[in-house]
Amino acid sequence: MKYSTRLAAVLAASSFRTALAQSSTWCGKNYMANQTVVPPGGQFPFPTSSAEPLVAFRCAPAFRPYLEEDGKHAAFIIDTPIVFENINGAAPISLSNSSDWWSPSSSHNLGKLDVTISIGNHVHSTKEVPLNATGYEFSLDISSLQAQKTSYNVSCSATYKAETSSSSKTTTQHFSTNASLLYLPDTNASVVKTDLRTGALWVRPADGKGGAFEPFIPQGFYVSFDQYLAKNLSLIDQLKADGFNTIHPIPPYDNATLFQQVLDKTVELGLYIIYDMRSNYQNLSAVADQVNTYSSLPNLLTWETAHEPDGNSDPFTAARNTYDLIYQMDGYHPVSIVLNCEDYNFTPYVEGADIVLEDAYPIGINATYSPVWHTECTPDFGHCGCDNCKGTLVDIKSRIQTYKDRLNILGYDRTKTVWTTPQAMGSGGYWSTTPTGQQWAAMGLTSLNHGATGSMSFQYPTTTGNVSTIEGTATNFTVILAETIQPFVVDPTATFVNYNYGGVDAGLWNNGTAYLLVVANLNSTEVYVPWEGVGLGKVTNATTQVQRIFSVAQNTNATGLNFRPGGIGIYTATPPK
Ligand SMILES: *[C@@H]1O[C@H](CO)[C@@H](O)[C@H](O)[C@H]1NC(C)=O
Ligand SMILES: *[C@@H]1O[C@H](CO)[C@@H](O)[C@H](O)[C@H]1NC(C)=O
Ligand SMILES: *[C@@H]1O[C@H](CO)[C@@H](O)[C@H](O)[C@H]1NC(C)=O
Ligand SMILES: *[C@@H]1O[C@H](CO)[C@@H](O)[C@H](O)[C@H]1NC(C)=O
Ligand SMILES: *[C@@H]1O[C@H](CO)[C@@H](O)[C@H](O)[C@H]1NC(C)=O
Ligand SMILES: *[C@@H]1O[C@H](CO)[C@@H](O)[C@H](O)[C@H]1NC(C)=O
Ligand SMILES: *[C@@H]1O[C@H](CO)[C@@H](O)[C@H](O)[C@H]1NC(C)=O
Ligand SMILES: *[C@@H]1O[C@H](CO)[C@@H](O)[C@H](O)[C@H]1NC(C)=O
Ligand SMILES: *[C@@H]1O[C@H](CO)[C@@H](O)[C@H](O)[C@H]1NC(C)=O
Ligand SMILES: *[C@@H]1O[C@H](CO)[C@@H](O)[C@H](O)[C@H]1NC(C)=O
Ligand SMILES: *[C@@H]1O[C@H](CO)[C@@H](O)[C@H](O)[C@H]1NC(C)=O
Ligand SMILES: *[C@@H]1O[C@H](CO)[C@@H](O)[C@H](O)[C@H]1NC(C)=O
């Protein structure tokens, strides 16, 4: 049985208003007619640029956590990009032959760093790592360490011997950074690892019967516990039938018997669950009780703590304190938070998370005038349902990319990941319409193209019927994502490039033998994109070299891709070398 979409949307909108009423600002902005305009502050500072080259020497374990059973085959990831912005941890470097490194004739052989990783007194190893490398894997046997709940402090240092052509003098430069290694005792209970090479999660089967760890991309939905799940467990079957692999019950979970039934059903169906502590994440004893009770769930995927702490102006340290407590007690599951604001105190809030979800809902808003509060929306005032948005799909692309960029600037590009929350509601409150299936899919695709490694749509049940609705699209889309897209996204050896061609957003992965092309026309016009516009200039025979996997309002001809407004497509390609 399906619930009425309109009802779902109204409930969604009303719960948003309820939340809002508790906070007299949103994203630090006043939004009511009787309030004045006060700049919210809290903006993310852009790094200053540097005329001289800097090296952003970074070091992180390849997996978090490692288990005792992994000890002999652990690895660290070393990044040594040369940058020209003062991002966190970047230090000036005098490059070998620095006077000619940019010249096209120079070989760009920048030389190598001698990198040493030390953990306590027992583990110590040095290897040569190329300068300007991304994702260099430094294998390290950590089995002589004691597996324990407390993470190890890891010291990573590098020396660089530069020779200059002008003088034959060799100078030695030193760089250092720290990392945190979580090396936990083996367990048969549930463990969710994060692959810091790709940002993907690795899980055992959700049914709790054991099995190997496999990488996967979470695809799921938020579902209200009391309004839907508690009344109709068959919604969980429906979500599974739609191809989703994860469910996020929205608290409060106020009937423990029914909540247990929900948990049992998700385990039986092999769905992962996100345990949400939004209503009491600042109450550390309540958090401790919940972690004690639920950390052994076989299908527990993540702990979600702060929900829109930036919107509500929660205390800056709250999410971090909860995060530290969860790691003291558990450590086997990552911690996620949801940020709603485009630019409000990003840095302090993300300190409390491994996974940062964005939940911008741009479809059907009036970006300049709030129909709820009857005031205008500007960068300094107002609440239009999507902070600092334009009201198009581009808002999603920008939001994901902005969050990724900031994490990189902060030095968290390996240790924190971004997930997306595709809008799957509307027709009430700030939203005059619900996204179509095509728009919903486009939000998911552009998010993948900008580095999102998980997707939790808001909210279920959603629009049903034919393939133009969200649920109708999802049945095809979830399978393609799992079978075709996921293998590229979770492949640490695959390369990835992003393109913007006339407003068409494209992501191109290459796993060494095949390409995956994911395209979404975020423009409201028709666009033609030649193959070379998305990095596939080597295609000489589109019929034999390009395979369509999925497309809506989008097709190809011999020389490229044709898009109608909002068209989306997924292709694999094997052009000649
Ligand atoms: C402003 O208006 C809101 C409702 O529109 C009301 O709840 C609030 O008390 C008012 N604040 C002031 C300072 O008048
Ligand atoms: C470092 O690598 C990037 C990406 O591969 C490249 O664009 C850049 O030119 C390299 N920098 C130097 C100084 O060689
Ligand atoms: C690890 O580093 C943190 C932060 O620098 C420090 O508080 C902690 O005491 C260190 N732990 C050990 C075991 O050295
Ligand atoms: C720098 O230039 C010197 C002299 O031309 C050359 O011997 C040396 O190999 C170069 N170093 C690197 C790292 O390319
Ligand atoms: C690394 O940790 C050590 C010991 O806690 C500290 O002295 C040092 O400043 C840290 N280095 C960096 C680059 O953060
Ligand atoms: C929980 O739900 C069950 C089934 O609807 C009901 O029998 C029970 O009274 C509820 N418990 C509480 C504490 O509300
Ligand atoms: C937003 O609302 C204002 C005021 O009602 C209206 O003038 C404007 O046309 C609306 N804009 C959009 C894009 O609907
Ligand atoms: C959208 O397409 C139009 C017409 O082709 C083009 O002028 C415009 O630059 C495109 N928009 C973006 C964001 O690229
Ligand atoms: C690359 O992807 C294609 C298509 O999914 C697959 O058949 C092939 O085995 C992959 N190659 C490698 C090296 O992983
Ligand atoms: C593409 O390859 C197919 C199969 O080999 C062939 O029939 C077709 O003529 C080729 N098309 C072009 C434009 O070369
Ligand atoms: C979705 O799958 C159905 C059944 O396999 C198929 O008929 C339909 O064309 C697919 N839709 C798209 C957009 O690929
Ligand atoms: C493919 O379509 C584009 C846009 O309609 C057109 O400009 C181009 O000539 C077409 N290519 C071929 C080979 O028909």
UniProtKB/TrEMBL annotation:
Kindly indicate where the leader peptide sits in this chain. Answer: 1-21
The organism sits in which domain of life? Eukaryota
Keywords assigned by UniProt, alphabetized: Signal
- Report the protein name in the record: Glycoside hydrolase family 5 protein
InterPro entries recorded for this chain? GH
Q: Which SUPFAM superfamilies match?
A: (Trans)glycosidases (SSF51445)
Gene3D superfamilies according to UniProt: Glycosidases
